[in-house]
Each structure stands twice: as structure tokens, then as C-alpha cells.
Automatic annotation (TrEMBL), chain A:
The chain crosses the membrane at residues 12-33, 61-83, 90-114, 134-158, 186-212, 238-258. It comes from Ligilactobacillus salitolerans. This is Spermidine/putrescine ABC transporter permease protein. The keyword Coiled coil does not apply. Keywords: Cell membrane, Membrane, Transmembrane, Transmembrane helix, Transport.
Length: 268, 362
């Protein structure tokens, strides 16, 4: 019986070994190698002493923060109202639907919409506003990223809101709380797990977006993701690329530990 | 007469599907008493409770609180608190914060809050539980915290929505004593909703029995148990022998093919009625000595008594509670006194019933 069970675990163990453990070890290894394959600490030294890299890191953080904050600001109320609708399964489906479309396709669609002859500019022209450069700006990068990530914020928040027992809301009113107090003291704290999952699902990938920075941001926005891509594909400095990768992994772990669910005594 | 604390005046409640959950309902709740709304699920008792709490508005009619109309006063502005069926404790807070919730909303000073919470926990016999998390407690303990969270606000009325239904039998009995004692000590008006007639009889000052959104009978537990108004109440309030009968004249009733002396009256001669005989009022005796002759069909041992299932010659079923044993298949006699026979008219309203009782009971 016990043997059988271990046998079933083999594919998963292999998978983890090949696609999770091995790549991480490889990245770690490469980060300690120079361009000729010799052991060195120069990559880390370069990363932490160069104002360019630190600025890049800060830049990535800033945009990831902007994207996450805007999805949270838009996503939380959206999720909240979704839970109150009559046919909420249908509306939720409409929220999920765009995630079934290829990311690349959506990015190209926005090139059409935001382009100098695109829909937005044509609309502005109707009111006599001259065509503006919208594509390849920081704004369009944040906007499109937020649009694409939005469902991943709405869904976990929606799930955590739906799970809140309606009688808790009644209990709060019963004990004298008004709508605002009920929200801040009961609904918001109980939906925090969803908010945390949403932040994790968006902030971390946003740190390393590189396709959107190119297609929508026009390479004006350079993030850690873009830098990694450049090092691996263009400058062929794998060691440096791997070093940035390691830094990203550490940052991700930090974010995860900051937003992880605190199970404990139930007190705040 | 004293001003009732809560008055329901001709309350009708209709939901979206046009079904009247409550129909033209009127009753008064007096201060400081323990009321029980008793009825099967779907009788409208929870709807009444939600209206008192302020979670539902009546479709028509008025709810008065101390003589003032409160139809449109929201739940958070009523001096009424609820103990919910599933406790509804906030899982993100510990016991202290749960109980302090209402006081913090009212901006009571922190020192006073701490003092009141400690006192409330003592009242529900959970001293020292302040720091406990909600998930670390048993059902009975959660129940007590929910109770403490409600009474700490010193409401005028405490609503209890089937609070004991999730507890096991022994705990439920303990809580019945505790609730009754708490109500006496605090002097708060309790409105307790249940479908369990034992709970209702054990704890209440007043029982209001509901069926299909209407009040069938209201009164003290003893009144309702001894003088059920009709078949529905008699059946609901406990195992009873209810058989069809004919009222020959005042104080003489015929059932099971025989005529018996009784103490009821005020009916038409030869009116078709029903009689109730409580299982514990029937006594086993020999075939010759019995007023009624029945054959034992089956017997169950219930601990404090035997429950004996018998049939008379006309096929009426008789259930007897007796400490004496009997033998299935045997013909035996049943003995009872005239005042054990309770006669019920068919389709009599509560007003007519009360008036008739008064007419021959002086």
C-alpha cells in the first residue's frame, strides 16, 4: 500500500525536479559565473553597485505597484458589486472571459485602439481634440497591464466576499454598526485573504513583464523583466541575467511572506 | 393597563412570490417576560423575529415600540439585539473583540468596555475566555459568547433565533435552565423562536403558537398544555390521543362507542367535536375496572415510563404512559377522571374559545 502510494508520487516528483528545482539551481549557478563560465561574484557586485540596476529595480517596483494598486482600486468595488447582483455567475463569466483570449492578441488589439489613427484618437477628433501619442507611453503601459491583470484581482476577492456568511453582516447591523462600520470592521478584514491572493497574483508577475513593455510601452518602460530578456537574448551575458533572476526570486519570496495569510489566535 | 413594549398591529408580510407569510397578525409583547414563538418551519416565526430586529419591513400594518412606530427604523438604531441560530460570531476577532463590538460602535470608554465584557463572560459562565479565538471553541461555548455579545449591550429586547438547535441534548437542557435564569436576573424581554415544544414549555412565560402565518393560540405553557384550542395545537404540543367524538350535551361526551362524563360545555347538543386525553392521564387497570377497553398492540421502554400503544374496538389508537408493564395482545382497561377529558370544537377561533371557557368556568 505504502509502496503504491510512493509510486504514484513519482511523476510529480519528476516534474518538480525538472521544471522547478533544476531551473532554480541553474539560475543560481549561472548567477555566480562570468561570461566565460568561471566562478565569480562580480555579477552581484555589478548589480548592487550600479545605479542603473538599482534604478531599474526601483522602476520595476514602481510600475508593479501602480499596476497592482489600480487593479485593486478597480477590482475590489467590482467584486463587491458582483456579489450583490442577481445573475452573478453570468457577470462573473464576463469578467473571466477576457482571460481566455491570448495575451498577445489583447496587446495587439490595444495597439490598434491606442494608435495615432486608432479608436481613441478618432473619438477625440470628433470633439476637435487633435490626435495624441497614447501608445508607447507610461500611461498606456500601466493601463493595458492593469486591464489584462484585472480579472486575477477580481476573482480571488469575489471568492472571499462570497464566502462571508451573510448572518455576520446582519449581526454587525444588529449590534449597532452602520453600513460603513460594517464594511471596515467585518467585510474588509474577512476579504483580506482574497486581496492578498490578488496582490500576489498581480504584483509578482508585474515585476517581470517584458512583452507589454515592448509592445505597449515601446521599450520606454524598462523593468527587471526587460533587463533579463536583454541579457539572455541580446547581450548573451547569462550570468548577469541569472543574477537579476535571483534578485527577482528573492523579492517574490519577500512579497509572498508579507502577504501570506496569518493563521493564529484570531486577534488582530 | 400597562403600555406593551412591542405591538404588532395587523401585520401582513408578502414576499416576491405573492404568498402571504404573515396575514393580519396582531399581538403585544410586555416588558420583562419570556416569550416563545412556537411553530413548524415555514410558519412565519423567523419572519416575525426579523421584523422585530429590523431586518425586514412589513408589507402592511405597524410595529410599535414603546408606543412609537418603528417600521422604518433600521436595525442598528433599535434597542434590540439578536442571538443568531448559527451564532454569527466574527471569525476575525477573538472573544473579547466579539463581545466588545457593539460597545466600541457606541464609543463606550475602553475601561468600561473591559469591565462590561468581563462581567458578561461571567454571566454566561465563561470567565477568562477573553483571549480565545472563535475557532478554538465548542458549539456550546460559541453559543454562550453569542449570548454575551448580545446582552452586553443591555438591550430592551433580546431575540433568540433557535439558538439551541445545534447543541446536543444534554447541553440543550443545561442551556434551558441558564437562559431562563439569565432572563429572570436581567429582566430583559426575551423573544425565543423554536420548533421544539419541550423548550417552549420549559422556559416561557408566554407561548405564541403559529401556523401558516397566523396565531393559533397564545397563553402560558400550562394553559396551552391543559387546554389546547384544536387538533393542531394538541398534536404540536406533545404526544396526545386525539379522537373524534360527539358532544351529547353539556358535560357529557361520547367517543369510542361509549358515553363519558366530562367538564366541558357551551356547545350545541350532538355537536361533532374532538377529545384529547394525555397519555400520562390514562391509567392501566383490569379489563372489568376500565372505563375504556383496549388491546395492547406494542410497548416501548422509555426509561421513566413504558409507552404502550393500544387500540379500542372501534379502531382508535390510544397511547398510554405508565410505569406498569403490559403484555402485547392482552385486553386491558383504561381509567381516567372526567377532568382529564378535554373537548375541542372544530374550527373554533381563539376569541370564541376564550369566551366559551369563561362562560362555564366561574
Amino acid at each position: 500500500m505504502h509502496k503504491m502510494r510512493s509510486l504514484f508520487a513519482v511523476p510529480y516528483a519528476l516534474w518538480l525536479l525538472l521544471f522547478v528545482f533544476a531551473p532554480v539551481v541553474l539560475i543560481l549557478g549561472y548567477s555566480f559565473m562570468d561570461i566565460n563560465g568561471h566562478f565569480t561574484l562580480a555579477n552581484y557586485q555589478a548589480f548592487f553597485s550600479s545605479s542603473n540596476y538599482l534604478l531599474l529595480t526601483l522602476n520595476s517596483f514602481w510600475y508593479a505597484l501602480l499596476i497592482t494598486a489600480s487593479t485593486l482600486l478597480l477590482g475590489y468595488p467590482a467584486a463587491y458589486f458582483l456579489t450583490r447582483l442577481k445573475h452573478r455567475d453570468f457577470w462573473l463569466l464576463l469578467v473571466i472571459l477576457p482571460t481566455w483570449i491570448s495575451l498577445l492578441l489583447k496587446a495587439y488589439a490595444f495597439i490598434g485602439i491606442f494608435g495615432i489613427h486608432g479608436g481613441v484618437n478618432q473619438f477625440l477628433n470628433l470633439f476637435g481634440i487633435p490626435a495624441k501619442q497614447i501608445l508607447f507611453t507610461n500611461f498606456s503601459f500601466v493601463f493595458v497591464s492593469a486591464y489584462i491583470e484585472l480579472p486575477f484581482m477580481i476573482m480571488p476577492i469575489y471568492n472571499s466576499l462570497v464566502e462571508i456568511d451573510q448572518s455576520l453582516v446582519f449581526a454587525s447591523y444588529d449590534l449597532g454598526a452602520n453600513k460603513r462600520q460594517t464594511f471596515t470592521k467585518v467585510i474588509w478584514p474577512l476579504s483580506l485573504s482574497g486581496v492578498n491572493s490578488g496582490i500576489q497574483a498581480i504584483f509578482i508577475p508585474s515585476l517581470s513583464l517584458f512583452m507589454l513593455t515592448r509592445l505597449i510601452g515601446g521599450n520606454r518602460v524598462i523593468t527587471l523583466g526587460t533587463a533579463i530578456e536583454e541579457h539572455f537574448l541580446i547581450t548573451q551575458n547569462w550570468g548577469m541575467g541569472a543574477t537579476i533572476g535571483v534578485v527577482l526570486i528573492i523579492v517574490m519570496l519577500l512579497v509572498m511572506s508579507l502577504t501570506r495569510e496569518r493563521k493564529g489566535d484570531g486577534s488582530r | 393597563m400597562k403600555q406593551p413594549l412591542i405591538e404588532f398591529k395587523n401585520i401582513t408580510k408578502t414576499y416576491d412570490n405573492d404568498v402571504n407569510v404573515l396575514e393580519d397578525l396582531s399581538f403585544d409583547i410586555e416588558e420583562g417576560k419570556f416569550y416563545t414563538l412556537l411553530g413548524p418551519s415555514g410558519c412565519g416565526k423567523t419572519t416575525i423575529l426579523k421584523m422585530v430586529a429590523g431586518f425586514l419591513q412589513p408589507t402592511s400594518g405597524d410595529i410599535l415600540f414603546n408606543g412609537r412606530k418603528i417600521n422604518d427604523v433600521p436595525a442598528n438604531q433599535r434597542e434590540i439585539n439578536t442571538v443568531f441560530q448559527d451564532y454569527a460570531l466574527f471569525p476575525n476577532m477573538n472573544v473579547f473583540d466579539n463581545i466588545a463590538f457593539g460597545l466600541k460602535i457606541k464609543k463606550v470608554p475602553a475601561k468600561e468596555i473591559a469591565q462590561k465584557v468581563t462581567q458578561a463572560l461571567k454571566l454566561v459562565q465563561l470567565p477568562g475566555f477573553e483571549k480565545r479565538g472563535i475557532s478554538e471553541m465548542s458549539g456550546g461555548q460559541k453559543q454562550r459568547v453569542a449570548l454575551a455579545r448580545a446582552i452586553v449591550n443591555e438591550p430592551k429586547v433580546l431575540l433568540l433565533d433557535e439558538p439551541l438547535s445545534a447543541l446536543d441534548h444534554k447541553l440543550r437542557l443545561d442551556m434551558q435552565y441558564d437562559l431562563r435564569e439569565l432572563q429572570r436576573n436581567l429582566g430583559i424581554t426575551f423573544i425565543f423562536v423554536t420548533h421544539d415544544q419541550e423548550e417552549a414549555l420549559a422556559m416561557s412565560d408566554e407561548i405564541i403558537i403559529l401556523n401558516d402565518g397566523q396565531i393559533v393560540q397564545s397563553g402560558s405553557p400550562v394553559d396551552i398544555y391543559d387546554e389546547p384550542i384544536n387538533h393542531y395545537v394538541a398534536d404540536f404540543i406533545g404526544a396526545s390521543n386525539i379522537v373524534p367524538a360527539t358532544m351529547i350535551k353539556d358535560e357529557l361526551v361520547e367517543f369510542a362507542g361509549k358515553q363519558f362524563e366530562c367538564v366541558d360545555g357551551g356547545m350545541r347538543p350532538n355537536e361533532a367535536v374532538e377529545v384529547v386525553l394525555r397519555p400520562e392521564d390514562l391509567e392501566l387497570t383490569t379489563y372489568e375496572h376500565g372505563k375504556l377497553q383496549v388491546q395492547v398492540d406494542a410497548q416501548l421502554f422509555r426509561g421513566v415510563h413504558y409507552e404502550i400503544d393500544c387500540f379500542d374496538k372501534e379502531g382508535n389508537e390510544w397511547i398510554v404512559h405508565s410505569t406498569k408493564k403490559s403484555v402485547p395482545g392482552q385486553w386491558i382497561g383504561l381509567d381516567f377522571s372526567p377532568d382529564n377529558i378535554h373537548v375541542m370544537r372544530l374550527n373554533e377561533s381563539e376569541e370564541d374559545f376564550d369566551a366559551r371557557l369563561e362562560s362555564y368556568e366561574e
